Amino acid sequence: MTVFISNLSLYPDDVLCKLIVGTWSIQDIISHIMGWDKNFIKTLNQIINNEKVKLEEHHDVQAFNEASVSFGRKMEPHDLLKEAISQRNQLISKLNMVSKSAFTKQFPNSSYTLETFLQNMFIGHDKHHVEQIKNYLNNQQ
Description:
By secondary structure, the protein is mainly α. The protein contains seven helices and two strands.
């Protein structure tokens, strides 16, 4: 994902800020992804510190997404790309600090293990948005 985001820096601001999916631009999509990364880093910190964790979808996805997009719109597009890369690198670093056993452990009051949560909530989510962006960029050439 960091390589993909880094490659977006080759595009000018007007391309990054043009609406491509509903009311979202590439900048908005990246800010949305970054918001989820930042949120999940908090969860990973709890796992690393052996605190009580409940793996579940956010209780108000719509509001969370709106806040993430709003945050990103206050930044310059290329600064946002750098920040998104930094956040994803922090997330990866935190994942590397999690014990192997924690990936397959069933979390209390959750249908997820850390592994299935990552597969269902992050990997598929990233692929979905990467495809949206790629499709738009490919159609512009």
